[in-house]
Design a protein that fits this description.
Blueprint (H helix, E strand, L loop, with lengths): L10 E6 L21 E7 L3 E2 L5 E2 L8 E3 L6 E6 L2 E7 L5 E3 L2
Antiparallel strand pairs: 1-2, 1-7, 2-5, 3-4, 5-8, 6-7
GO molecular function, one term: protein folding chaperone
Family: Belongs to the GroES chaperonin family.
Pfam families: Cpn10
């Protein structure tokens, strides 16, 4: 049973991207190799309000690839085979582009 989660305030729901186990040349990469901790944005909240009550929208959008900190985020299971992480917008380190 799949569910849809719409984050509240300035929170962002992401799905971690799995890093390849082999290099482009076919060499097996060890588990301890340093990889980027990246994820795909699945859903974003509407944003948070400032002191005057004006809405400050979230700068990220669905489909963005972002860089995550090594630790943090709240694990969320929406389906039996999918795991997601919920972060505040200011905890995300940046956006990755091609």
């Amino acid at each position: 049973m799949a569910k849809r989660l719409i984050p509240s305030l300035n929170r962002v729901l992401v799905e971690k991207l799995l890093q390849p186990k082999k290099s482009a040349g076919g060499i097996l990469l060890p588990e301890t190799s340093k990889q980027l901790n990246s994820a795909k944005v699945v859903a974003v909240g509407p944003g948070e309000r400032d002191k005057d009550g004006k809405l400050i929208p979230v700068a990220l959008k669905e489909g963005d690839t972002v860089l995550l900190p090594e630790y943090g985020g709240l694990e969320v299971k929406l389906a039996a085979d999918k795991e997601y992480l919920l972060f505040r917008e200011h905890d995300i380190l940046g956006t990755l582009t091609d």
